[in-house]
Amino acid sequence: MLQRKGSICNTVMVYGNDFQTSAGDLLGEVEAAEAALREAAGRELAGEAGDAGGHDAGRHGAGDRDPGARDPGKERAGYFDRIISADQKIEPRDDMPDAYRKTLIRQIAQHAHSEIIGMQPEANWITRAPSLKRKAILLAKVQDEAGHGLYLYAAAETLGAAREELVDKLLTGRQKYSSIFNYPTLTWADVGVIGWLVDGAAIVNQVPLCRCSYGPYARAMIRICKEESFHQRQGYEILYTLAHGTPAQRELAQDAVDRWWYPSLAMFGPPDSESTHSEQSMQWKIKRFSNDDLRQRFVDMCVGQVEVLGLRLPDPALRWNPQRGAHDFTEPDYAELMRVISGDGPCNRQRMAHRRAAHADGGWVREAAAAYAAKQAGAEA
Amino acid sequence: MGELSPLWEVFVRPRRGLSHVHAGSIHAPDAATALHNARDVYTRRQEGVSIWVVPAAEITASSPDEKDAFFDPAADKVYRHPTFYHVPDGAKHL
């Protein structure tokens, strides 16, 4: 039943070579980021043989009881800057500016929350997937989103954030998640569009994060991006199937593209002129490209992809600009983006209520597991 | 002969940017000594920039006997791999 199209054996395809990719595609970029990480890891840091070597010995020597006690603050700051400028990774026990730590915790937590809330719009269709094959795929995808949330929470915890605190901040609305998940999934075609456009936009955002300066985040993103590729392709396949089906199916696909296009463009955040966190994050190499640059890259990618689908993007102003070497397009409604982020989107209340209920409903499981663990510990003692 | 001191598992981060990887184990009476011993045994040639030591008794490992029951369920879920999906001719960046 779970046959790939064509006559090639599934397992050969799967175990043969998953990541053999042509240059310029997603997995190729992730591979390149991973190679760059290894290459940078092998590079000598300026001055590392001298003072920094002693610094490391001091830090790792006595069980990290007194990190950096031998170094005045200035020298520590210099060390951080040298690592960043050498394109190396900051690791959990390195000295880092407070603001760097806080920015990362905020960004990684919001990213984790987005994965967790992002399960809802698609899980909504698990029971109504049109075939057992599609149902199994969708289950696997939603399961992946939960996994991605957990990788990211774990990365945030390496910075000293407590898991309970992060969960609490999501449940009480003190930390946000991506605006896109506040839009409803009205038809099966929406599941396809989420894979193609929403995961596609997320990938454009996330591939550069594989090169982020914070080691645990970069490594988590490499893992996530490799898994995301399946998400995007399954969505594209759903849409391709619908777009080449009956006129009604084709209409369903076009309607979903029409509704999700602008919210997907808004996923890249406010325009550069209004982006508050961007500049510092670029200096710290947490972020590598501006919101507008990434949005442009996404549009340019989608134009070719929508042609193959035989559908159209709902933007009459969309056209190739030979001077810029890029497509001109209509910007999303940023006022709407701000409204949705601040809680007034079509599904914000529903998403939060569902998340809180799921957390509360799971309470008895956590209690039972803790009681069992305590009982076992008592039996052993 | 006194009792052998506890066993510690040693994880070494070869370079900044890479994860800690299991290198081997070491005996030591306490954590600080384990760290020093691990440095002497596993990083004499600059194999690492950071070491973790973990009490071996604290590690819970999956059992080889249960390998099939534990890992086999993933084997028939080929749709978790991107290669499962048909990408139409001409579709780029997917």
In N-to-C order, the SSE pattern of chain B is EEHEH
What is the spatial order of strands in the main beta sheet of chain B? Answer: 2-1-3
Overall helicity of chain B = 10-25%
Number of helices of chain B: 2
The percentage of residues in β strands of chain A lies in under 5%
Q: On the 0-100 scale, what is the average pLDDT of chain B?
A: 90
- Tell me, rounded to a whole number, the average pLDDT of chain A: 86
Descriptive report:
- The complex is a heterodimer of chains A (381) and B (94).
- By secondary structure, chain A is mainly alpha-helical.
- Helix content of chain A is 65%, strand content 2%.
- A two-stranded antiparallel ribbon of chain A has the order 1-2.
- By secondary structure, chain B is an alpha+beta fold.
- Chain B has one domain: Ubiquitin-like (UB roll) (Roll), CATH 3.10.20.
- Chain B has a three-stranded antiparallel β-sheet, covered by helices on one side.
- In chain B, a hairpin with a 7-residue loop joins β1 and β2.
